[in-house]
Amino acid sequence: MSVNAQSVSAGDALDVLRVAWDAQDNGSLTTSWMLHGKPGVGKTQLVQTLANQIGADLYDIRLTTIEPQDLRGLPYYDHETQKTLWYRPEDLPDNTDKPAVLFLDELTAASPYLQPTVYGLLQERRVGRHTLPDSVFVVAAGNTVEDGAVAYEMGTALSDRLVHLHVTANAKDWLERYAVDQSLHPAVTAFLRSRPDLLDTTEDSLRRGEMIACTPRSWDRVSQIMHAVTNRRIRDTMVAGTIGVAPASDFARVADELDAMVTVQDMLATPRAQRADLYPDTLNGLVGLIYGLVAQTDAETIPDVIDVMADLRTLKSEQVQSLPLGELTSFGFELLIRKALAQGLQEAFRDSAAYVDYANERTEAGAL
Predict the structure, then answer these.
(1) Which residues pair with 60 in a beta bridge?
(2) How far apart are CA 368 and CA 360, in angstroms?
(3) Distance separating alpha carbons of residues 343 and 36, to the nearest angstrom
(4) What is the pLDDT of residues 87-115, one digit of tens each?
(5) Domain regions of the chain by residue span
(6) Whole-Å CA distances, 256 to 101, 196, 205, 249, 285
(7) DSSP per-residue codes, 202-252
(8) How far apart are CA 146 and CA 105, in angstroms?
(9) Minimal CA–CA distance to 356: which of 290, 291, 288, 310?
(10) How far apart are CA 168 and CA 188, in angstroms?
(11) Secondary structure E strands in 79-201
């Protein structure tokens, strides 16, 4: 059974859930949500991000690892009332006004015997005699049979209790709204900007009968490997085991380019007048530098980051003259401004002579 809901990127799905939370918080909309998508597309990450943004406790329940009684609780006999009562399970939010996100993951892979218990949580917001507080936001997630994952078809009795979103991988969205915020390794971000087709290769891998595929989740793991492992031979083996041999081979070439670069920390520590010779002379290198600069941006480094970004467009060496320096500078400032706004660092742009010169130049050219 196909998921005939609108397909959205992970970033757009996060926007939808954030608006839904605001509507629930003001009492105008209370419903449960279902995120469909291939394994590794970022469903869990976006729910974690939502919880962080709204200051909520996250109750992450993997439905494939529990039995119905784990949600219902355990019975005990009350001799005074001569009734069987139930101990509430600790995995469900308490009666509190503090925001909480109840994340029912792997819903479509859960045992059919568990689904009737889940129905009450999704529709009536209760299980047994335990009712979820109004401050609890309910989100479920799962894969489909077509994704090559272990899954059961979702029946209408279950699907009718949910508002559905079909989450798909989008390289531009993932790079700008996840990778930058999480400070992923510049080699990963630079590579995927030039090869957005390799962000998610699940369908191609299934068609070829290959076990390993590229996914947003696997690229996140590649970033962790790049940060943690310095031995190139061992690192390459780990990366190949994460995304597959062919993508890993292409990625290694970009990683080698960035390995040969001066580090972002060294560039920021160098006086501005002496930085020109430190810039990479390849497109991948410059893209990696941009992502690296944004990843290192904080209240202390942002003045120097702005200078390095602004001076990129003025490079004069023969090797970079054929590269789109103006476009790269604009791209870099878009990412940097997004991060500065998120961290309340926008005043640094008003105080930067380098950015004022850049902005005036863009205005005169009719670009601003």
Answers:
(1) 103
(2) 9
(3) 31
(4) 777 778 876 788 999 999 998 888 877 87
(5) 7-168, 170-260, 261-368
(6) 42, 19, 26, 11, 10
(7) HHHHHHHT-S----HHHHHHHHHHHHH---HHHHHHHHHHHH-HHHHHHHH
(8) 18
(9) 310
(10) 19
(11) 83-87, 100-105, 126-127, 130-131, 136-142, 163-168
Task: Report how far residue 282's alpha carbon sits from residue 291's, in angstroms, rounded to the nearest whole number.
Answer: 14
For 260, 280, 304, the CA distances from 42, given in Å and listed in that order, are 31, 32, 33
Query: Quick one: pLDDT band at residue 35, thresholds 50, 70, 90?
Result: very high
What does the DSSP 8-state code read for residue 277?
G
Q: Which residue type, as a one-letter code, is found at position 177?
A: R
pLDDT tens for each residue of 167-187 = 999 999 999 889 988 889 999
List, in order, residues 6 or more apart from 317 with CB less than 8 Å away. Answer: 276, 279, 281
Helix or strand or coil: residue 17?
Answer: helix
d(CA 3, CA 164): 8
CATH superfamily ID and name for 7-168:
P-loop containing nucleotide triphosphate hydrolases (3.40.50.300)
- Total-model pTM: 0.83
Q: Which residues, including other chains, have CB under 8 Å from residue 48's CB and lie 6 or more apart?
A: 58
Residue 61: strand pairing partners = 104
pLDDT in tens, 328-368: 999 999 999 999 998 899 999 999 999 999 999 888 877 65
* 144/152 Cα distance (integer angstroms): 7
Task: Transcribe 21-63 into DSSP letters.
Answer: HHHHHTTS----EEEE--TTSSHHHHHHHHHHHHT-EEEEEEG
Q: In sequence order, which residues have a C-beta less than 8 Å from that of residue 233 and are 6 or more positions away? A: none
Is there a contact between 171 and 239 (Cβ–Cβ < 8 Å)? no
